[in-house]
Design goal:
The protein has about 425 residues and is an alpha/beta fold. Helices cover about 40% and strands about 15% of the residues. The chain folds into 2 domains: about 5-120 and about 380-400, Enolase-like, N-terminal domain (Enolase-like, domain 1, 2-Layer Sandwich), CATH 3.30.390; about 125-380, Enolase-like C-terminal domain (TIM Barrel), CATH 3.20.20. The chain has helices at about 50-55, 65-70, 80-90, 100-120, 120-125, 145-165, 190-200, 220-225, 245-255, 270-275, 290, 295-305, 320-330, 350-355, 380-395, and strands at about 5-10, 25-35, 40-45, 135, 135-140, 170, 205-210, 235-240, 260, 285, 310, 340, 355, 365, 375-380.
């Protein structure tokens, strides 16, 4: 069997908001086809037009090749060998960044393809599962139009998550920094007020994480803001400092007691070695599409195991990435959680509609995927709609103005109820 074709689908939520900081609004989905008629799918979390160029661009010398020209004609079962060959052949173009993200989408699709070929779930092809179920944590999405409403709806989201069966949730507390939301500005003291309010509402038996999304410019600012947060028994604090401040991360880990998590933007195991050995974090968060696919994510997991570091993968895309993370967690004993936001509670149309019959939580856990490959299937109607939206944007760049995003009150659950109020 040989790889006969590669389709790159650039997708866009028609209701995207160019003023938002949310990569859930666009996507690159790849399909790898074979001469045996079997197709694998994958995705990555990066600007999809850039990633497509990394795949489709032609090369003119042996160290500056495009990914597709190296992949076509290959035996798709030789996944690790393909990864290493594509990494080396594109070394002058990539080694890090968007090219590795594009490679990650292709690698994910190759694992899906191999599982389908063998009629086996990806985790069954890759090894022996260490658990029967995956534990998800809920990513909460409160109203950010004002701090008071944010505080109220954050508590309501947390209570709803617990009622839905979640045993853990992550609070997005981002009133400053590059991810600061419209209308939401607050001091470190008020950030702590939000953590306290949620802890009081869900009780001590509920696992809480906090994501501050690079809110603090330096170590001193971070230490001032999070002083006293250790009383809330947090599982970790995510991305408190700029991603490249590895010395700051190491000092933060040594100067306070909350475990520090990071890594959502990183590509390749080499960056994660620096994060663990120099940054001294307690939790690494590879995004499977960004880090280089399942092949590279598993390498990161092994390096983390050797260092006694936990793995909690970042997921902020569609059911494709959720499935990939479930297979990763199935093989990784030191992966206590995966990030999970049920489609019915999410405002992203891509997240809601791109795949059919995605993994679902049952009684607080996600059963291991049992279908061949990743175990998800594209919704072709939605794919066509999202492709058309991306094409319209290219034809009419002036349409790239912020549109009013759906307010959280309009997000409906399957039972017709809003997730709060």
């Amino acid at each position: 069997m040989r790889i006969s074709g590669i389709d790159c689908h650039v997708l866009l939520d028609p209701a995207f908001d160019a003023g938002a900081t949310s990569s859930a609004q666009d996507d690159l989905v790849v399909e790898i086809h074979t001469d045996a008629g079997i197709t694998g799918i994958g995705e990555t979390d990066v600007n999809p037009w850039i990633a497509r160029a990394c795949i489709e661009a032609p090369g003119t010398h042996t160290m500056g090749l495009g990914l597709a020209e190296m992949l076509l004609g290959s035996d798709p079962s030789e996944i690790r060998e393909i990864w290493d060959r594509l990494y080396e052949g594109s070394a002058m173009n990539g080694r890090r960044g968007a090219l590795i993200c594009a490679l990650g989408a292709l690698d994910m699709a190759l694992h899906d393809l191999r599982g389908k070929t063998l009629d086996t779930p990806c985790h069954g092809v890759l090894g022996t599962a260490c658990r029967d179920t995956i534990t998800p944590y809920a990513s909460l999405q409160p109203d950010v139009s004002s701090f008071d409403l944010y505080l109220q709806t954050m508590v309501e989201w947390a209570v709803t998550a617990k009622e839905l069966g979640f045993s853990a949730a992550k609070l997005e507390i981002t009133p400053s920094g590059p991810y600061a939301h419209k209308g939401l500005r607050a001091s470190g003291e008020r950030m702590g007020e939000a953590v306290a309010a949620v802890r009081n509402s869900v009780g001590d038996d509920f696992v809480l994480m906090v994501d501050v999304q690079y809110a603090f410019p330096d170590l001193d600012a971070c230490l001032r803001a999070i002083r006293g947060w250790d009383r809330y028994n947090l599982s970790f604090i995510e991305a408190p400092l700029p991603a490249d401040d590895l010395d700051g991360y190491a000092r933060l880990s040594s100067k306070q007691g909350i475990p520090v998590a990071a890594g959502e933007w990183l590509t390749t195991r080499h960056e994660f070695v620096d994060l663990m050995d120099r940054g001294r974090v307690a939790v690494v968060q590879p995004d499977i599409g960004r880090v280089g696919g399942l092949t590279e994510a598993l390498r990161v997991c092994e390096l983390a195991r050797e260092r006694g570091v936990q793995v909690v993968p970042h997921i902020w895309k569609t059911g494709i990435s959720i499935a990939a993370a479930a297979h990763l967690a199935a093989l990784t004993p030191h992966c206590p959680f995966i990030e999970f936001l049920p489609a019915r509670l999410c405002g992203s149309a891509l997240r809601k509609r791109l795949v059919k019959e995605e993994l679902r939580m049952e009684n607080g856990s996600i059963p291991l995927p049992r279908k061949p490959g990743l175990g998800v299937e594209l919704n072709r109607g939605a794919l066509a709609e999202f492709k058309a939206a991306a094409e319209r944007l290219v034809r009419s760049p002036s349409s790239r103005h912020p549109v009013a995003p759906a307010r959280p009150e309009s997000i409906q659950m399957d039972d017709g109820l809003t997730p709060w109020r």
